[in-house]
Amino acid sequence: GYDLGAPDRVAAVMNDWFSLMNQGQHIVATGSSDAHRIQYHWAGYPRTFVTVGADADGPRHPLDTAAIVTAIKAGRVTVSSGPIVELTAGAATVGDTLIAASDATSVRARVRVHAAPWVDVTSVDLVVAGHVVRTLGVASRPTYVGPEVGTLAEAQARTLRIDEEVDVPLPAATAQTWMCAVARGTRRMDDVLAFMPIAPLGFTNPIWISRRAPN
Questions:
Q1: Taking the model in full, what pTM does it have?
Q2: Is the distance from CB of 85 to CB of 124 less than 8 angstroms?
Q3: Residue 183: DSSP 8-state
Q4: Where does the chain have alpha helices with state H?
Q5: Which of 124, 148, 164, 169 has CA atoms 20 to 30 A from the CA of 115?
Q6: What number of other Cβ atoms are within 10 A of residue 170's Cβ?
Q7: CA dist 76 to 164, 192, 213, Å?
Q8: H-type helices in 133-173, by residue range?
Q9: Nearest to 170 by CA among 109, 95, 84, 93
Q10: How far apart are CA 100 and CA 107, in angstroms?
Q11: Sign (positive/negative) of CA torsion 112, 120, 202, 41?
Q12: What is the CA radius of gyration of the chain?
């Protein structure tokens, strides 16, 4: 959390994580924070989001800690200080292994990013084996605070910043690789959140990709 204002240090940690995954280690990335006084970074920036089954949590169900632990171990995790990033490829989502043909040169992926009105999002990088292979531009929006106009559904629809399908190139002659998505904004959040001179960042854990010869 404290290093969010130092992008080079964040990038160094992410590059270490990328290197471990390139060696075949399934390391699940998480994000955390703490706060020791009021005049400092807010707790919860960044935080870890875990995808669990529809029945694992909600108003009619108690929090299922076992389901959360299982989902974390499976890599169904995204990390964010603002943008909420979703990545799928066919039926595969983060934590899954996508089976591709042995001669596949690319996979088709879908990227969706949601963000609150005060969170800036300007780009999404698609990273394969530690390298940015596609960058998707996102239209920046001016800072907005105050009541949301219209219906709840209309307000929810405005949180969607990008929803795009793209072909993601794969490295040649590699039996197994991985891809993840990284969303960034350029406008710092301290124009709304005091003591938060950081640019928004959100990223997914990987979808693993395994090339298999046809039967």
A1: 0.89
A2: yes
A3: E
A4: 7-22, 65-73, 152-158
A5: 169
A6: 19
A7: 21, 30, 27
A8: 152-158
A9: 109
A10: 8
A11: negative
A12: 18
